[in-house]
Write a structure and sequence with these properties.
The chain has 492 residues and is α/β, with parallel strands linked by helices. The protein is built from 17 helices and 13 strands. Helix 2 (24-39) packs antiparallel against helix 3 (54-68). It is globular and about 60 Å long.
Length: 492
């Protein structure tokens, strides 16, 4: 029988390679078949392009294993990469027609780490154009990506292509980026585990920016174990991204050591009620979150409920700060010297973007508003006075309540229908993690309306990824909420 790649884990795949049940080439062939069979025919539309070198990369790994009988950390693991990561020799567009045909000469640091560990880049996934939207995954390059659990629903944004592809087993694991939501939201909407690392744990070098003061890349996977395995490979210092200096001595070599089944025993966890009890939240999502809180307690965690951040509204008012034009222009100069358009102004003048981002594109090249001027120049996340004040308030209350982590629903509402931009969205991810720099992991907590996934976020202090993985793994193993979407069965 051929090796069935659906819902496999990295450990299962590598054991199959080791025992001779499957080769790396056969794995790539299997995933390619699934993409060709399902991605367009179902209108899932998760992929922008397939890597023509993937089979050759797989054959080299097969030859290496045959010769050495040794496997690298991600040997043979087939990865979906969001189209804002530079991939050497493979078009990188950020979902923009203005970037079509732009082929980087080098890999983004995180992609380089993956390849060095033996991972195979199957292809590039669709994304919200320029990563603008947390609500939809739609680009002028590839159109609209849909949710595999309900094809009339959105996968959230902007890493929705990666999420949809991994959820439908079109790849083993994936890379997303998260500025305010975009790893955690799509992971929640697609019954995946997504990790937004501490700002500084992973490198931003070679990633098309949205806001460098909040951008961070991380793994999206069908299990906590797989997400931890990928994080172990991509985390660490990169001289090309100075903020990663903060991770020296704090990045773990192997996050898999935190995969502890009774990891919640003795934990003290705060419940962020302002998100759980959101006024426009869906009652079914709230019910799942209440059940998750009970499950955490049943696994030995002590719940601090409610956990209230003092002066939250005042401290978070106008806290965000970024300069998309400056960031994109810097990226184009350094990483895309062959791009047809050399600045954001030229891209805006080209008109090569979808209507839903037109106002925002034009606003980013317009003179600064009085409010922006009053906010002052944007500075690094760890130097910004507003973010420092908010971070100190969260940390202070965590210390006061002796809390190890915080929990809340990743989104308070089910995935919207495609085209619906009016019903309550429910995104709870824009503030706590991005504005503090703290890490957060989302893990499946069940389904609303029979088939629509929902996720729980666990957030902790800077560089506490190991602890968050331990809690998420214990919860995942106790509840086993993940299930595959219907309609994406085996391919002959």
């Amino acid at each position: 029988m051929p090796f069935d790649v659906r819902e496999t884990t990295i450990a299962e795949t590598q054991e199959a390679i080791r025992s001779g049940k499957v080769t790396c080439r056969e794995l790539v062939e299997a995933y390619r078949k699934r993409v060709l069979a399902y991605d367009q025919s179902t209108h899932l539309n998760s992929m922008i392009l397939l890597n023509p070198e993937a089979l050759a990369d797989a054959e080299r790994l097969d030859a290496e294993f045959k010769k050495t009988h040794a496997m690298r950390a991600l040997h043979g693991v087939v990865v979906i990469v969001k189209d804002n990561y530079d991939t050497k020799g493979l078009q990188t567009t950020g979902g923009s027609l203005a970037m079509k045909g732009t082929v980087p000469a080098t890999d983004a640091f995180m992609v380089k780490r993956l390849r060095e560990a033996g991972a195979i880049v199957l292809g590039k996934s669709n994304m919200a154009e320029w990563a603008f939207s947390p609500y939809v995954t739609e680009s002028s390059i590839a159109g609209i990506t849909r949710n595999p659990y309900a094809l009339d629903r959105v996968p959230a944004g902007s890493s929705g292509g990666t999420a949809a592809a991994v959820a439908a087993s079109l790849g083993e694991v994936g890379l997303g980026t998260d500025t305010g939501n975009s790893i955690r939201g799509p992971s929640s909407h697609n019954a995946l585990v997504g990790i937004r690392p501490t700002i500084g744990l992973t490198s931003r070098d070679g990633i098309i920016p949205l806001n460098v003061f909040q951008d961070v890349g991380g793994p999206m996977a069908r299990s906590v174990a797989d997400a931890a395995t990928v994080l172990s490979v991509v985390a660490g210092y990169d001289p090309a991204d100075p903020i990663t200096k903060t991770a020296e001595g704090k990045a773990e070599a192997d996050y898999k050591k935190y995969l502890v089944k009774d990891g919640l025993r003795g934990a003290r966890i705060g419940v962020v009620r302002r998100y759980v009890d959101a006024e426009t939240g869906d009652p079914q999502v709230k019910a799942l979150m209440e059940k998750a809180i009970a499950d955490l307690k049943a696994q030995g965690a002590e719940m601090v409920d409610p956990f209230v951040i003092p002066e939250y509204d005042k401290l978070t008012d106008k806290i965000g700060c970024g300069d998309f034009q400056k960031d994109v222009n810097a990226y184009l100069a350094l990483h895309a010297p062959t791009a047809y358009y050399r600045s954001l102004s030229e891209i805006v003048d080209s008109g090569l973007y979808l209507p839903y981002i037109e106002a925002r594109m034009k606003a980013n090249v317009a003179p600064k508003t009085e409010a922006q001027l009053a906010r002052g120049p944007c500075v690094d996340t760890y130097d910004d006075p507003k973010k420092i004040a908010f971070r100190d308030a969260v940390l202070g209350e965590m210390e006061k309540q002796r809390v190890d982590a915080l929990v809340y629903p990743t989104w308070s509402n089910a995935p919207r229908k495609v085209g619906d931009m009016k019903s309550p969205a429910g995104d709870n991810s824009q503030v706590l993690s991005p504005q503090t720099g703290f890490p957060a992991i989302t893990v499946p907590m069940g389904f609303t309306y029979d088939s629509l996934p929902a996720g729980m976020t666990i957030l902790g202090r800077s560089f506490s990824e190991g602890l968050l993985i331990k809690y998420a793994y214990a919860y995942e193993q106790a509840t086993r909420h993940r299930r595959a979407p219907a309609g994406f069965g085996p391919v002959e």
